[in-house]
Amino acid sequence: MVTIRVFGQVLLPCVDEPEIQCEISEPVSVRELLEGNPEALGGLLEFLRKGELMVTINQKISTLESMVNDGDVVKLTHQFNPEHEGALWHNP
Questions:
Q1: Contact 68, 41 (CB under 8 A)
Q2: Between the CA of residue 23 and those of 9, 20, 27, 59, what are the distances in Å?
Q3: Long-range contacts from 4-10, C-beta under 8 angstroms, 24+ separation
């Protein structure tokens, strides 16, 4: 089970709950995790496509291609202007 925590005034209205549990059977990337759970996380896909999500896995800055394992905690926050605020270096 992976725990996804969603933060911020922009992202919270896009999901029903700020903390979502997702079952995985094998390690998957953050991108695959989000795209594979459209019923719970579909509202975040727009931000994923635009590269406006900042990701941490177990409190370590990560990318959308970082692998998530069973028991991990993924935190998602919104990055409004990645070109000027530093998010592009980890979410190209």
A1: no
A2: 26, 10, 11, 20
A3: 4/33, 4/41, 4/74, 4/75, 4/76, 5/73, 5/74, 5/75, 5/76, 6/44, 6/76, 7/75, 7/76, 7/77, 7/78, 8/77, 8/78, 10/47, 10/78, 10/80
Residue 54, judged by CB atoms within 10 A of its CB (0-12, 13-18, 19+), counts as buried
pTM value? 0.83
Which pLDDT tens digit goes with each residue over 37-61?
999 999 999 999 988 899 999 999 9
Return the structure tokens found at 29: 């990337």
Strand-pairing partners, residue 77, are: 54
DSSP letter at 61 equals E
Q: Which two tokens stand for residue 27?
A: 């390690």
Q: Which of 22, 24, 26, 6 is nearest to 78 (CA)?
A: 6
Q: Which of 44, 32, 38, 92 has its CA nearest to residue 68?
A: 32
